[in-house]
Amino acid sequence: MNNKTFTYKKSGVNIDTADKFVNFIAKISTNKKGNKKFSNIGGFGSISNIPKNIKRPKIVACTDGVGTKIEIANILNKFDTIGIDLVAMSVNDLIVQGAKPILFLDYISTNKIILSKLKLIINGINAGCNISNCDLVGGETAEMPGTYEKGKFDIAGFAVGVVDENKILNKKKIKNGDLILAVPSSGIHSNGYSLIRHILNKKKINIKKDFFLKKELIRPTKIYVNEVLNLIEKKLLNGCANITGGGLEDNIKRVIPDGLCASINLDKIKTLKIFSWLKKNNISDKEMLKTFNCGVGFCLIINSKNLKKINRYFSKNFKPYVIGKIIKGKNKVKLNAKINWI
Description:
Blueprint: H1 15-28, E1 57-65, H2 69-76, H3 82-94, E2 100-110, H4 115-132, E3 135-143, E4 153-164, E5 179-184, H5 193-202, H6 211-216, H7 225-233, E6 239-242, H8 247-252, E7 260-265, H9 273-279, H10 285-291, E8 296-302, H11 307-310, E9 321-328, E10 333-336
Parallel strand pairs: 2-3, 7-10
Antiparallel strand pairs: 1-4, 2-4, 5-8, 5-9, 6-8, 7-9
Helix pairs in contact: 1-4, 3-4
């Protein structure tokens, strides 16, 4: 008779380690002021309140990941900022409709739970939540040996926001003659990394030895929540767009009403050095604009009379500037001139 016993731990899943990680999350899950608002992390579901000052609340929900930027984190063995990217990818979408983020949940799947790595990831997620003034209320951690290779993992985020029905940003608010403003990105954000990694592989570039690339490729995504919500509160915003996968054209056309066109002058865009580096690697302008934000992380659509009032809500490195105008036309977006790559 075979006396060997089979256990979940022997198969590669350690529930005890997962429990330790849940306890760690419960300890750090505080709001920006350091107050614990939730005591149910580790339960079956998260419970939270709808803000009382919203008369006709509507729920807005978003989910996203960070794509293969995870592989850059693995190469550099740097995991403390990828969580900021994760939060940014969802909350920057929420605010497009005017919603205030109120809660966030994460999903982490990995070959094996390594507490030191996961703690760094979750610290980044918590930091992103603090920047966004929303609460990390729970999530899920899955140890999946056989599905992921050694050292590999994936993360996904789920954000919920609330907006008063009367304050929802919709296409009807955008009018002929409105200005289109570009808000600078912090860098690549979290899109286009499969193409970047393809270039690194083909050219045999070791980013560990390249200070510029090492810094730029892991730079976290800018979170625009507080600035945009302030503009909405002051009634200075008619529409906006988060510039992610698909680039400037694909994202801004999603908010343009029928009969109007976003006429954008590409030569007005203030590019960043990392995009000039990418451009030098035999990538066409069309491919650059389709894959990357090219320096424009977010777009604002405003009445021209409000232009001078906008800048006060943005820090020095993220001051919005005019790149186009809303005009009459059948096409949702018209791209004029060419980008001046620095």
